[in-house]
Amino acid sequence: MRNYPCIMQFWQKTSAAPQRIGVLLFEGFSNHCLANTVEPMRAANMLSGKALYDWTFLSLDAQPVQSSSGLPVAPHDRLDAARGDMLVVMPSYGFRHHAGWKTQAALRSAATRFPKLCAMDTGSWLLAHSGLLDGHRATIHWEELTNFAERFPEVEAIRERFVIDDNRLTCSGAMAAFDLILHLIGQTHGQALALEVAQLFMTRDSARSHAGGATPAGRIVNRALAVMQEHLENPLPIPDIARRTGVTQKTLEARMKAELGATPTTVYRRQRLSLARKLVVDTDLSVAEIALRTGYGNPAAMTRAFKADFGTTPSQIRQS
User: Fold this and answer.
1) Disulfide: which of 4, 135, 242, 265 matches 249 by Cβ 3.0-4.6 Å?
2) What are the residue boundaries of the HTH araC/xylS-type domain, all occurrences included (predicted)?
């Protein structure tokens, strides 16, 4: 995937330093889970033009580990030498085999160096077995949820895609890992950046993929985003979008400002320009054709808006 020009500052809440993420892998980890954890962070870095996230692959002893499908990974370091902002524990398959005293001791020690612990897939079992989920709400891969609840009564087991309880984060599987990381991106750097990441990966209902979607305000914003996404080539007036969303223009503006930190007009323009950017990078369409496909009758108008948002022109991107 090619590099994209960075996005404007209103799309994110700035952070002084990148979040340092340790990803602890065990033999039999899931490639799918790993990709859904790391790739959204990589995309957030790329789209923002900043190092928002910095991740390190770890194992207990720094020896190579092999995924369930045979992909070998050489870790950057061993767990006991690492520290950071969050540790992601990722055993996936064969997790019971890894739940020995060495893993317990290593995880308990790591909890003093990583303020947040995140368990992906069956990683919740290892954290619970180490006493690190006692008194917390947590989830696990749903096939293991009943056994998990019976084995660890000190943990409140919940059937959710992911659960965030203070400084403990747990996730039910590979697909949910993407949702969790997307939620964290939105929480830390703004929902609009999370939306751009979702759209970049063409996630199902990506026009509705922002972390506020479960709230009434979030549902209104999601409906409006979907209407906008369906009318990029022939843009609708904002009052029409509000009407199709079932609210007044004033309500839509207030909800979108609160959820995404930008007005409907700004968000709509951003969706159209994001499509323009993708067409510039990934196709050989002329600038005039791209302008038409993104709702600009005049290529010069599209180019001006493009440069205002991305700091460069379509032609300059192609020349580089």
Assistant:
1) 242
2) 222-320
